[in-house]
Amino acid sequence: MERSTIVRVHEGLHARPATRFVKLAKGFESDVELVKDGKAVSAKSSVKLMLLAVKENQEVTVRANGADAIEALEALIGYLENPRAGLDDEAEAQSPANDAGQEAAPAPGSAPAAPDGANRLRGVAASEGFAIGPAFAHFPPDIAGQGRMLQAEEIEGEIDRFRMAVGAVQARMDHALAQDSLSAGDRGIVAALRDIAADDSLTGEAEGLIKGGNDAVSAVITAASTIAAEFSAVDDHYLNARADDVHAVGRQICLVLLGQDDFSLENIPEGAILIADNIGAWDLARAPLKRIGGVVCGHGGATSHIAIIARSHGIPAVLGLGGQVNALRTAQDVALDGNAGHVIIDPDEATRADFAGRVEAAAKERAGLTIFKTVTPKLADGRIIEVAANIGSLEEIEAALEAGAMGIGLFRTELLFMRHMHLPSEDMQAETYTALAKAFAPYPVIVRTLDIGGDKPIAGIEFPDEENPFLGWRGIRMCLDRPDIFKRQLRALLRAAVHGNIKVMLPMVSDISEVRQTRVLVDECTAELKAEGVPHASFDLGVMIETPAAVLIAAALAKEVAFFSIGTNDLTQYIMAADRLNPTVAKLNDVTNPAVMSAIEMTAKAGVAAGIMVGMCGEAAGRPDLIATFVKMGLTELSMSPASIQRAKKAIMAMAAEG
Ligand code: PEP
Ligand code: MG
Question: Which of 7, 91, 297, 375 is the most buried (most CB within 10 A)?
């Protein structure tokens, strides 16, 4: 008995959804298979399911055979079509950063491998920041199998030994998962490893080899390599990174079999730079992370679990050095620049002083600013200035909250569209915007509608070849021409508005008709949702002011919208006619140029006169040297990267103190 459907699981059947699907499948006696493109795998193995690489919106068939086949089909098809049904928020939060974070990071492994100099190496910039400290080389010896063929009478005992070792590793991971000290992100990562340890793909493969006469350690090594190779071969960065996880789990099983303790990171000295060819996410997640000054690794890219852990704990990291990492085995000290992906072995005095200065300055600044996290900046006249965050994915929520963001002033929705092989569904968008609204309520979350053009094409939209993509079919222009895409986003936003303070802003507006046409579409979407009985709520509609035309018609625009948000990045390039990406004209691309500053002032005046909120979400909003000027012009909201928030609050408070 079988049924086909389109998968609605966000990002497809990757780690955690695969585990959930397997858990459901294992609840039925029937044999259950999932079939994609003619390939069928057991629905009771999360590793096999992951390797099938099922993506969102793909068609699959569920096949069940047994007494409860009808019930199994119903439950499994139900999950594929509506994966969130019956899940509480907590269960969802345990998914490794929603697993999407891993894909949010830049593509891994593209850094050049050649050394820059005798003691300088270059790898993948995987977690930003500077570090210098004593090298802590972590090169545990490879585990080798005994290479001995078992006698027939030994096989049963070896299988028992193997099963006990697997049980011990699972118990260790369960113990780690029970610790309150494990952060939500790390918990998801350890849970994914535990799933691999519990999956019969790895254990089944190893047991098969033992039955064939191999000793357990050799069997585990071979089985892990076989499965890791399959993960490496899939055309998906996220799944490729799971190969390292399989090796890590295999290693843990082998260590138990050999009765050896794993090489521990427990004694890493304060501020040391951890150097390894390959560190298992499992090892890093339970290491004393607060003591680690930096991480340098031969393996791993920007989407590996190591990178994710390092980023979420603010540890600078350079990964993917390949064989070059061996040059660090005997290093005494190491300096690393996680922004550029540089590693310097035994730096000279001048480099030492330079790095020490950077690290100290950054730490001092960070420490001095934390008192501003909970500050609500207020001017002498009582006006509150909202200092909000610019983010582009749900994974950045934690950093924004941690910094003290008073809401989101710009949620760039492009990433949602760009990280997929296809256009994101209305449901997926509604879930994303809802999560944002809930995280920041009652503060506002300003979601910018899709701002994409020929310079950044995405799957599912065909862009014409353009001589000047920055002056072409982008932002609101494209959206109005593609109501199928635009309405899906507007409907998702109306649905999310039920859950918090959602506001919506339109990018690249240059004509008042663009706002009016959008309103017509919003009304259409509202009527549709009402007719369908789908819960929804209205939202404030605003515009970005980032074209000279919008500045010149600001007074008229202000009558039609609830707020302005000045996009100084584009406004500067269009006012100055200087491409923001072209370093040759970088001097002209200057927000402090009087031409740009007067455009900002004109916008502020028009907004203030009409009584609407005027904010700013371009990079300039976070510049402490300009904040007082913007506030004096009448801006009451400044939105910036989370890292700039506390500094901006400090600048506003200093201004308030001056009166
Ligand atoms: C801007 O143009 O200032 C802006 C915030 O938008 P983006 O940088 O995404 O174009
Ligand atoms: Mg812009």
Answer: 297
